[in-house]
Amino acid sequence: MKYLYLKISAILLGLFIILGSVFVCLMGFFAKEYLQETNQMLYGNIAEQMTKEVKPLVDGEVDTLAIQKIMSSMMVINPAIEVYLLDTKGEIITYVAPYKRVKAENVDLQPIKEFISAEKFTFIKGDDPRFPTEQKVFSAAPIMENDKLQGYLYIILASQKQASAIDYLVNCYIPSLGVSLFTGALIAALILGLLAIWFLTKNLRRYVDTVTKFKEGDLSVRVCKNAKGDFPVLGDTFNAMADTIVANIDELKSVENLRRELIANVSHDLRTPLAIMQGYVETLLIKDDKLDAESRKKYLNIILNSSEKLSELIAQLFEYAKLEAKQIELKKEPFQMTDLVQDAFAKYQVLAEEKELTVQVEHEENLPIVFADVSLVERVIQNLMDNALKFTPKGGVITISLEELKNGIQIKVADTGPGIPAEEQAFIFDRYRMTKTTTTNSSNNGAGLGLAIVQKILELHDATIGVQSKLNEGTAFTFSLPTYAG
Length: 486
Known about the structure:
Helices cover about 55% and strands about 15% of the residues. The protein has helices spanning about 1-45, 45-55, 65-75, 110-115, 160-200, 200-215, 230-285, 295-325, 335-355, 375-390, 435-440, 450-460; strands at about 55-60, 60, 80-85, 90-95, 125, 135-145, 150-155, 335, 360-365, 370, 395-405, 410-415, 465-470, 475-480.
């Protein structure tokens, strides 16, 4: 916060210096213009007054005595002026100027005519015959004889001597005055500016204090609504960010707890088949000579079944880890859902007969094709069927049904098993939990990864899975896939 305050102060100081320099330059320029305008305002009518007193041209000829009289009068008023007598075309007939240094032979009459014709005072500059590249303030008047224009009396009011005095004033006194005024104004502006910055950043300092407390571990600190001041968006953004961080921390803590629960459950599931395998292998080794062929075969089958369960569990763990890490890419293609369901029916009919269960398929005719990853959808149906076979008692029925929706097809896998209590239905897709239905039947114990894998696969397809279940009546899982639009 200190560095921000110093940076703003430095920028403000730099801006003041730039503006002050521009101000001093403009002040000198306009002061010079103002002095010339004042000079022309005070002495702009002297040419007219002179032509009323004397006639510098008589019958088109220069009256020397008249010119001398004019110069005597001008020297009294302003000894630094320059007097020019012009003909009707602007040619210089004669002149009286310091050092007789006149470079131009004529003068542009347009500014002179504008000056003479102006009804009220107008600041106008004209040619300076001594310095043709410069413009000077002047006084001018027409020379009339018998109502006929004979020429012009043209008087340069800002001679070189006067211009030098003005330049000295502009280059020395005015900059000195401007710097003094600017320095005083700069100090006052800096003081007021720093106070203004301090006041405007008051709420920002509160934000910094709040962020510092949050960084130091006070996760409950927030920017008060009354303290948002001039930065309400910043306050709202910080509060939203803090809420998100706290929510993520809580979620991570929850995930960590659930991860530990998963490790405990998986460890138990891995330990059970390993213990069975180890026990029967030891039995075979100890009673090798005493076992008959039938017992030996029975023990080996038990070992084989346990190893298959262990392999299946490990495969599920790897599959779920890939899905959760999003390492599986969808390979969507159009396919007929009825064909996939018929394949599943043919596969599980044999398994169902071994458990004395009935598997049936229900679907409408001429259903549209769907657009999804065939292998992953097949995995979803396989896991749902495995789940149904696991919990459906003898004599039960498992039904796979397809129904056409507006923009897709709904797939349902229903069974007539024991059902799931209503309070546990929200957790059945959680990989870390097991329902009472599974825990009360030791043969069905498991980490609950089958339904968790189903949910992850459907999430990849931007689909959801729903469950409907009643105790002692059965459970139905439903999900939908979009139809192929191509």
